[in-house]
């Protein structure tokens, strides 16, 4: 049984698709006439779907209000109080539906940040047996860690609970260490401690001090030497195994596998971490071209590097989009989505990946807010979930 049936006028198809995608992102099954297969008796399929849907979402517009088809679908949805209504423009719905409150979602690209959208989703959630759906949208809008924790505790069986945990992990991600140098305290002369030493014999006076120390404390020197040799052996073994791990990331031996700091591609992680470990706050960074949000060929090496590193650190992947001050903040989300889709195609499960558009809120260290270098995508590989988060 379909969760939501969307009734709309063909001229409003672009708006319908945007609403359809937003509902699908909420793990709802949604039907509209784009799903009709060629050769199908479309009027019977529409009738079957609208009768079986848990919620009938009507997108009222001046054109839709004049359509007999949409009126009939809305009339069917009103049976058993399954009707949910949206106004796409300043129209008057047909008089027979005047008692059904219609939420205004006029021509706004960011409609998902609107309170009206939360009301619509909350109504659909009640009809589909998911009463926490409206609160989920509020969590998305507020981006508050405490609210996310409360939603996860109250809705442990909702299909969105894993995604909610990703959002919580994203909010709890520690900020990178400050890049500005810290002041160094001035040196202070401290008088040496007053320690009394026994008088040296004439024989000791004629002997070099280091040899005298060895005679009295030779056992200490022997232990220190053994510890030093053991540390060298362990270090050599660790370096050899770490090199093998890095060289085998892509399943084949590398010509440069003998070098401990070898990275499988020409792009390296910002900072000093190697792909064999979770970089955490050290992101893979992609410089984006002005005015472009679609994937570019120069993105591929960094995307490949992030994917190879994820194979050794299969935890949460966070993709962030950034733009310079004055740039289109929606581009940040578009770029993040484009990279996230590339990573999914590489093989990273969609359930372990999340994206966010940061806009111009986080300029690069050493760059002014309007610097074009701030237009970028960053990929963070986080440690796997801690059991306490569940």
Could you please describe the fold and organization of this structure?
The strands form two sheets. The protein has a five-stranded parallel beta sheet with strand order 2-1-3-4-5. Among the domains are: 4-131, Toll/interleukin-1 receptor homology (TIR) domain (Rossmann fold, 3-Layer(aba) Sandwich); 142-172, no CATH class; 284-389, OmpA-like domain (60s Ribosomal Protein L30, Chain: A). The protein has helices at 13-25, 42-52, 68-78, 115-127, 133-142, 145-154, 161-171, 202-205, 209-247, 300-312, 329-346; strands spanning 4-7, 30-31, 55-60, 83-87, 102-104, 284-287, 317-322, 353-359, 376-381. The two termini are 30 Å apart. By secondary structure, it is α/β, with parallel strands linked by helices. Mean pLDDT is 76; it is low at 177-198, 239-277 and 385-390.
Poorly predicted residue ranges? 177-198, 239-277, 385-390
Please state how the strands of the largest beta sheet are arranged side by side.
Answer: 2-1-3-4-5
Which oligomeric form is depicted?
single chain
User: Residue-averaged pLDDT, rounded?
Assistant: 76
How is the secondary structure organized here?
Layout: E1 4-7, H1 13-25, E2 30-31, H2 42-52, E3 55-60, H3 68-78, E4 83-87, E5 102-104, H4 115-127, H5 133-142, H6 145-154, H7 161-171, H8 202-205, H9 209-247, E6 284-287, H10 300-312, E7 317-322, H11 329-346, E8 353-359, E9 376-381
Helix pairs in contact: 4-5, 6-7, 10-11
Overview features:
four-stranded mixed β-sheet; alpha/beta; 390 residues; Rossmann fold; five-stranded parallel β-sheet; disordered C terminus; 11% strand; 39% helix; 60s Ribosomal Protein L30, Chain: A
């Amino acid at each position: 049984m379909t969760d939501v049936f969307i009734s709309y006028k063909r001229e409003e198809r672009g708006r319908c698709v945007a609403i359809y995608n937003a509902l699908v992102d909420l793990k709802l099954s949604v039907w509209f006439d784009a799903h009709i297969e060629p050769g199908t008796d479309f009027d019977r399929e529409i009738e079957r779907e609208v009768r079986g849907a848990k919620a009938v979402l009507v997108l009222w517009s001046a054109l839709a209000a004049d359509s007999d088809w949409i009126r009939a679908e809305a009339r069917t949805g009103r049976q058993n109080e399954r009707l949910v209504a949206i106004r796409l423009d300043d129209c008057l719905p047909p008089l027979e539906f005047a008692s059904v409150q219609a939420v205004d979602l006029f021509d706004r690209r960011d409609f998902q940040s609107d309170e009206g959208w939360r009301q619509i989703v909350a109504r659909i959630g009640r009809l589909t047996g998911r009463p926490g759906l409206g609160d989920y949208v509020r969590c998305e809008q507020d981006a508050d860690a405490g609210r996310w924790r409360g939603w996860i505790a109250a809705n442990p069986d909702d299909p969105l609970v894993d995604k909610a945990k990703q959002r919580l992990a994203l909010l709890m991600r520690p900020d990178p260490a400050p890049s500005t140098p810290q002041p160094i305290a001035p040196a202070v002369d401290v008088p040496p401690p007053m320690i009394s030493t026994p008088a040296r014999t004439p024989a000791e006076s004629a002997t070099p001090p280091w040899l005298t120390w060895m005679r009295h404390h030779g056992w200490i020197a022997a232990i220190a030497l053994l510890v030093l040799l053991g540390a060298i052996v362990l270090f050599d073994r660790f370096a050899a195994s770490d090199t093998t791990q890095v060289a085998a990331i892509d399943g084949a031996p590398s010509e440069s596998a003998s070098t401990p700091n070898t990275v499988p591609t020409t792009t390296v992680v910002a900072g000093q971490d190697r792909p064999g470990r979770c970089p955490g706050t050290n992101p893979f960074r992609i410089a984006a071209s002005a005015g472009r949000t679609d994937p570019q060929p120069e993105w591929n090496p960094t995307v490949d590097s992030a994917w190879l590193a994820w194979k050794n650190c299969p935890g949460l992947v966070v993709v962030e989009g950034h733009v310079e001050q004055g740039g289109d903040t929606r581009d940040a989300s578009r770029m993040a989505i484009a990279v996230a889709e590339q990573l999914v195609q590489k093989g990273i499960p969609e359930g372990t990946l999340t994206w966010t558009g940061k806009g111009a809120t986080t300029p690069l260290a050493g760059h002014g807010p309007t610097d074009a270098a701030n237009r970028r995508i960053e990929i963070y590989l986080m440690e796997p979930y801690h059991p306490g988060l569940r």
